[in-house]
Each structure stands twice: as structure tokens, then as C-alpha cells.
Design a protein that fits this description.
The protein is an alpha/beta fold. About 35% of the residues lie in helices and about 20% in strands. The protein contains twelve helices and 15 strands. The strands form two sheets. An eight-stranded parallel beta sheet has the order 10-9-8-11-12-15-13-14. Strands 1, 2, 3, 4, 5, 6 and 7 form a seven-stranded mixed beta sheet that branches. Helix 3 crosses helix 4 (about 120-140) and helix 4 (about 120-140) packs across helix 5. The chain is globular, with a radius of gyration of 20 Å.
């Protein structure tokens, strides 16, 4: 074969494969916040393409629990990606396996379709989900937000602790609540370790550990909060609108099915509502779908717009210090693409 052809073959065979630990090292939160911001803008200005995710229920397995195979393709700026994962919700109750397992594949779509990188999807998803909340918080929260409330004790509680502190907002107190108090106490100790050992990039420069507190009720946890992150895949509301004080910003992350909700209708009605994807918000976001169905909000016009449109200046964000703002996050495939591209570009 000609030399040029041999060189092309050699180049085409080069592939980077990254484990969960390697993704964690190569995609720190501050970098993912920037890549996620790019994804949210690309979705809103339509420079990014994102076909509807495909969810296939797998045949009944030996443990007699549902399992799903999910594909999430996307395209932006000459690159294509696809996240391929299995979803086994019952794994949340074990320490052996994540409920979401798989890979994100990155392709060169502007030249030859070459597969460039395969990265562990679990770590990508964990980081970019929290990064999206950070982008929304930096865009919508009051600049003097001091108190953060985290509802939930799972992996996203830890990721959101990092992402919220990487916003650079002057957070000095973090309130914690979980349905299992022992898990909340364990979370508190984990966050102490993270605070002292994480390689922070933009955290508010504090010379001492911020105050961490565990609360027995959601009401006590959130009533003085400036920022609330809800991270519980619940079918019944855990957060009620009457507990939210003026000026609060909420990142609603845990409920991602039309039958799930973390907030009651009053909470949705009181807030200026933003989302990551308009197309998905009134289909997949149970918090919003159920609020509309029960009449807490009158129409889909209650949604002010996508956070990407706020970032690009097409939609107005916070209008005053008393306004309650709410970011309903469902996760978008473009966030996976820009995350793996950020890793690839830095390699």
C-alpha cells in the first residue's frame, strides 16, 4: 500500500479508552461546567442536534426487575457522540453496581467518521449533571447566596456539593437532608473529606471549613436556604412551595420521569421556571407535567425558556432579588458530547 494510505490506516486505528477513574481525573468539575455551558447554548440556538433518546425495555431478567437499554445520540461542531447505557434502577439499593452503566463514544463527524474516544458513561453523567446545575445557579441565583441546601444523599449529592462550590458564590453553610438519617450523617463526613482534598479551581476562598448540618425535616433544611438542590427520585413531593423563601434558586434534578415529582404544584407555580430542553420538559419532567395536569399552572407558557437561551441573551433571567427561580434539569445528550470532546481536546 502507498505510504499515505498506511499512515491513514494507522491513524484510524488509534482509539482512546477511558475508565471511570480516568474520566474523573481528566474531567474536573470546573472544566465540565464550561463544556456543559457550551452544550446548553448549542441546544437553544440549534447549532447542536439531538435526536430523541431511544429507550428499550429489556426482556425480564433473572432477578425479575425491569432493565432498560438507552441510546442518546448528538451532533455539534463537526463531532458526533452517542451514549449507550443500561438502566437498572434496583442497583441503587446495592453497592456493587451503578443504576446507569455504559459508555460515551465520540466520533469525528466532519471528515471520516473515525471513532476517537470511548469513556465511562457513569462518571460523565455524574459530573455533567451537577455541572448543568452549576451553570443554572451561576446564571439565576442571587450573587450573595450564602446557604446551600442539598436534598438527597446519593452520588449526585456529592457531585452537587462540588459543583455548587465551584460556582464561586460565597457559600458558607450547607444544609443536608436525606430520607435515611444515617446516610445523611455519612454524607456529611464525606463532604468534609471532599472539601479538604478536592483540587478546587474556583471555590470561594475560605480559610476554614464551611458549616455542614444535617436536618431531620426538609422544611428545616430549606427554610433559610438561598440555593436548593433536589436530588431524590421521588413519586411524592418532598419540597413544598410554602417553605421556599423569596429570592431562592432551586435546581430540580432527581425526578426525570413523568410519574416522578420532588416538588408540589405550589412550588412550581411560585417560581420563574427554566429548563435544559423545552421539548422534554412537558413530556418527561413529572414535576411540571403533574403541576399542569392538576391545574397548579395554567399552561406551558409558565415555562420561561431554556437556560441556554438565558445564557445567549434571548430570554430574561432573574428580574429582582425577591424572585424565586427554578431550573428543571433532565439531562441532554449534547452535555455528554461536549464533555467527552473537552477530554479529547485536552489529550
Amino acid at each position: 500500500l502507498p505510504i499515505t494510505t498506511m499512515q491513514e490506516i494507522s491513524k484510524a486505528e488509534k482509539l482512546t479508552v477511558l475508565t471511570e477513574k480516568e474520566v474523573e481525573q481528566k474531567l474536573p468539575m470546573h472544566k465540565c461546567i464550561q463544556s456543559t455551558k457550551e452544550a446548553l447554548i448549542a441546544l437553544s440556538n440549534k447549532t447542536g442536534k439531538m435526536p430523541i433518546r431511544q429507550v428499550s425495555q429489556l426482556p425480564q431478567n433473572e432477578i425479575q426487575k425491569p432493565g432498560y437499554l438507552v441510546t442518546m445520540p448528538s451532533y455539534h461542531d463537526g463531532y458526533a457522540a452517542c451514549k449507550l447505557i443500561t438502566v437498572y434502577p434496583q442497583n441503587s439499593n446495592t453497592a456493587n453496581f451503578s443504576s446507569h452503566q455504559g459508555v460515551v463514544a465520540l466520533f469525528n463527524a466532519k471528515q471520516n467518521g473515525q471513532l476517537l474516544l470511548l469513556a465511562d458513561a457513569h462518571q460523565i453523567t455524574s459530573t455533567r449533571t451537577a455541572a448543568a446545575s452549576a451553570v443554572a445557579t451561576m446564571t439565576l441565583a442571587r450573587k450573595e447566596s450564602h446557604v446551600l441546601a442539598i436534598l438527597g444523599t446519593g452520588e449526585q449529592a456529592r457531585s452537587h456539593f462540588v459543583s455548587m462550590l465551584e460556582t464561586g458564590l460565597p457559600i458558607v453553610q450547607v444544609n443536608l437532608w436525606g430520607r435515611n438519617n444515617d446516610h445523611a450523617l455519612k454524607l456529611k463526613e464525606d463532604l468534609r473529606v471532599i472539601f479538604n482534598t478536592y483540587e478546587w479551581k474556583t471555590k470561594c476562598k475560605s480559610t476554614k471549613l464551611i458549616e455542614l448540618g444535617v436536618f431531620s425535616t426538609v422544611k428545616e433544611c430549606v427554610e433559610m436556604a438561598d440555593i436548593i438542590c433536589t436530588l431524590v427520585p421521588s413519586t411524592d413531593p418532598i419540597l413544598r412551595g410554602e417553605w421556599i423563601r423569596p429570592g431562592t434558586h432551586i435546581n430540580a434534578v432527581g425526578a426525570c420521569l413523568p410519574t416522578q415529582r420532588e416538588m408540589d404544584g405550589t412550588c412550581i407555580a411560585k417560581a420563574a421556571l427554566y429548563c435544559d430542553s423545552k421539548d422534554a420538559c412537558f413530556v418527561e419532567a413529572g414535576d411540571v407535567v403533574l403541576a399542569l395536569k392538576e391545574g397548579s399552572i395554567d399552561s406551558q407558557d409558565h415555562l420561561l425558556g431554556e437556560i441556554g437561551s438565558v445564557l445567549s441573551g434571548e430570554v430574561e433571567g432573574r428580574v429582582n432579588e425577591e424572585q424565586i427561580t427554578l431550573f428543571k434539569s433532565l439531562g441532554i445528550a449534547l452535555e455528554d458530547l461536549t464533555a467527552v470532546r473537552a477530554i479529547h481536546d485536552a489529550s
